[in-house]
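I'd like us to work through together how a protein chain folds, taking it slowly. To get us started, please write out a protein record for me. Go ahead whenever you are ready, and we will take it from there:
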Amino acid sequence: GDGLSAGGPPGGRPSADAGSAGADFSGAAWSRAGWRAQLLAVADPDALVDALGAVPIPVLAAESAARAPDTVALVLDGQPFTHGALDLAAAAVSGWLRRRIGPGDRVLLAAGSGPGFVQCYLGTLRRGGVAVLANPASTQAELAHLVSDSGARVAFADPGPASRLATLDRAPEIVSAADPPSGPAWLGARTGSQAA
């Protein structure tokens, strides 16, 4: 087949005239078709997707860390990260955010994909915050709009967007996404207190 019945070409959204008469390539239907195309070894991809959607990402991450802490969860820039290491990093970021945001508050993430991004994203979700994702190439005006619209009080950012965010009249607290909060030593060094 041409792959269209399984969601179209991998990595691309099929057009309405892609040759599948009557196919629904909008929203959830298109997403589910993509899951079915990528999960060929799974007997019931729709049931798996339904089960995943019922559990929040931080809970899935914590369960994976408890079940298989030494198993590699992902590889970023050639560096493997285990479920356990990601869980510890997310816990550190979440703990740091606890004094800064409440559940439902927005946290801006203006960083490229990398270890810091993943740690900050998972830590924000674990705290109950809402991650507002920004392209790290966003202009100052675009970042100002995102901060104003979302009400983000904290931003994890790469150096470029961090410098643009710092010039805003109502800049959020800015933290390097490459060096996210990672425990008592980090907190002590940045607060001037002694690490416990």
